[in-house]
Every structure is written in structure tokens, then in C-alpha cells.
Specification:
- Strands 2-1-3-4-5 form a five-stranded parallel beta sheet, sandwiched between helices.
- The N and C termini lie far apart (27 Å).
- Helix 3 packs parallel to helix 4.
- Strand 4, helix 4 and strand 5 form a beta-alpha-beta unit.
- The chain has five helices and five strands, in the order H-E-H-E-E-H-E-H-E-H.
- It is α/β, with parallel strands linked by helices.
């Protein structure tokens, strides 16, 4: 199986890319994976920015309906959407000037990976930052 995020890339995104993470698909539904991962990211000092059509405030952070509506720079775009929509989110991440894109476990879009890397962003697919970040210690 191809790896879309070697240890160096994973470590770089988690430690050196910046601490503002837009979590696309994050809502107030505590049963969803996005909620648990966002909580772990916060515990490790990341600022999470919920991105969801409802633009709800989640875990104390103001939500936005889209990446384009966030009025400040975002370092990493963490994608919790249906795999068929993930490539579009990666393109939006490039458009808003993010430094990295992270597709969650089970989400692989090779064309989006090539476009995103071609635009100069770091990218990881099919991994979970909440699993990877404790391994850095």
C-alpha cells in the first residue's frame, strides 16, 4: 500500500507548520470523529477552527461555513468530509493559502494529492493526527 505521508511530513505538519487548524466537517456532534480529533489537537496546543455549513461554535471556537470565510490565516486544513468531496476541500485549502492539508483515515484522492503537492503544500492522506501527535513525544 502506498503511504501518503512519511514520518518526516507527518512530524513537520504537526510540529512546524503552525498551530491554526481548520477542521472541515467539525460540528457540535460529539459522536463524530472530527469532534474527538479536534479535542486532541486542542490538548496539544492547536487552535481549531470549525468549518461546517452550520458554522457552529465548537469546543469554544467560532465556526465558519467555508474555508473562504475564515478572516485569518490557516496553517493546516484537516478534512473530515466524504472522500468524494475531499479533493474540492484540498483545492479550497490551496486557494486560501494554507500550508498543509490532512486527509483523515480512509480518505485517499491521488489527483488531489498531486494538485496540492504541486501547489507547494505539504499533505498527508489516510492518517489521523490524533493518533500521530502523541507518538511525537
Amino acid at each position: 500500500m502506498t503511504s501518503y505521508g512519511d514520518d518526516t511530513t507527518v512530524r513537520g505538519i504537526l510540529t512546524g507548520t503552525g498551530d491554526t487548524w481548520a477542521v472541515v466537517g467539525l460540528s457540535t456532534n460529539t459522536a463524530r470523529a472530527a469532534y474527538g480529533v479536534a479535542r486532541v489537537l486542542q490538548r496539544y496546543g492547536k487552535r481549531i477552527v470549525p468549518v461546517h455549513p452550520k458554522a457552529e461554535t465548537v469546543l469554544g471556537e467560532q465556526g465558519y461555513a467555508s474555508l473562504a470565510e475564515i478572516p485569518f490565516p490557516v496553517d493546516v486544513v484537516d478534512v473530515f468530509v466524504n472522500g468524494a468531496l475531499a479533493g474540492e476541500v484540498a483545492d479550497e485549502a490551496v486557494a486560501v493559502g494554507a500550508k498543509a492539508v490532512w486527509f483523515q483515515l480512509g480518505v485517499v484522492d491521488e489527483a488531489a494529492y498531486e494538485r496540492t503537492r504541486g501547489a507547494g503544500l505539504a499533505m498527508v492522506m489516510d492518517k489521523c493526527p490524533a493518533i500521530e501527535i502523541p507518538l511525537l513525544d
